[in-house]
Amino acid sequence: MFDRIAVIGGGSWGTALAVLLAEHGVPVDVWAHSPEVAEGMNGKRSNEVYLPGIGLPANVRATSEMGGLRGASLFVVAVPSKSMRGVAGQLAALDLANGVPVVSCTKGIEFDSGKLMGQVLGECLPQCRMAVLSGPNLAQEVARRIPAASVVGSAHVDLLEPLQRVFSVKGFRAYTSDDVTGIQLGGALKNIYAIAAGVSDGFGMGDNAKAALVTRSLAEMTRLGVALGGRKETFFGLSGMGDLMVTCFSGKSRNRAFGERVGRGEKVPDIVASVRTVAEGVPTVRSACQCAGRFGIDAPITAEVFSVVHEGKPPMESLSTLLGRPPKPENEEKRAAAAG
Question: Alpha carbon of 204 to those of 180, 200, 208: distances in Å?
């Protein structure tokens, strides 16, 4: 087992992970970008800014000094995707020991490079062993020990069992997989479709429309994810369909809530400016559109979310575009393969 754990990220997800990991009784150090957040966590024994109402165990300590994390035997990274490369650079300055495990719990795709968060970390920390964690994990529920499950993946197969044990605590069940790419893509792409599901809610479109949208989103996510290197079955697991379901339907989902506000007529810049937390689907849809273009993948839902969020297209026009697409078989890929 790991005798000291460092959690990089003092937001809601990083705090929830710290609470979860603290159950092993080892020291858990949380790095928060904001000194005020770190001081509040230590003084009030809770993160009232990002995860209010959740008490912190005695073995959780917060800091805003990255150097205070030296000596940890496991690093768990849960920062916004737009901050990942900068934070990875700060971690690199710590001169981490060869082979120390680093787990990315961030869901996103870097713009221009198309790299997943584990790849960004691996590029900055080549001496470390990379792993990823993803699944239908709302921070509030995980921290409150409401039952949840996730999947941990790594190309280092000897890491899978120790990581599965450290993340498997009361109320949280961890599975393992070696499809590191698929796990990360499922976690990243679902945020795009959650925005679309929220727009549907904002329009008051009804349950039939939303069910159809989420089903077609799963097909699109799988198509795009396989093209980018994931395995098809991964997208029907916890980091794919599982995370897609919770993010599209939960009232606690940031991305769904963001989309709902768009559907009700609010402007994207106003929504972004009004919240502390990041709706990861906003930056991810730019990267996903870029990747779909590179590989020639048909991703109409992704394209319309991008147009609404980044180009100011009226959501109702995007809806008309999607509904006006030419009719086709539901399993078009299977039909194309059979045709030769």
Answer: 37, 6, 11
Give 125's contacts (C-beta < 8 A, 6+ positions apart).
88, 91, 92, 96, 102
Assess whether 199 and 166 both reside in one domain: no
Same domain, 21 and 85: yes
Residue 335 has pLDDT above 80, yes or no: no
Contact present, 135 and 242 (Cβ < 8 Å): yes
Say whether both 152 and 212 belong to one domain: no
**74 and 10, same domain (yes or no):** yes
Please indicate, yes or no, if residue 213 is contained in any of the structural domains. Answer: yes
Residues 170 and 193 in one domain: no
Q: 154 in a domain, yes or no?
A: yes
Query: Which one is catalytic: 170, 190, 210, 252?
Result: 190
The question of whether 334 is a catalytic residue gets the answer no
- Residue 333: the pLDDT is 64
Q: How far is CA 326 from CA 129, 175, 205, 292, in A?
A: 47, 40, 21, 20
- pLDDT tens per residue across span 28-46: 999 999 999 999 999 999 9
> Per-residue pLDDT averaged across 74-102, rounded?
96
In terms of domains, do 21 and 169 share one?
yes
What are the beta bridge partners of residue 31?
A: 8, 63
Strand partners of residue 148: 172
Residue 295 lies in a domain: yes
Task: Tell me the average pLDDT of the chain.
Answer: 95
Specify if 183 maps to a domain: no
Count Cα neighbours of 251 within 13 Å in the Cβ-side half-sphere.
0
CA distance linking residue 211 with residue 224, whole number of Å: 20
Handedness of CA 117, 120, 125, 127 (dihedral sign): positive
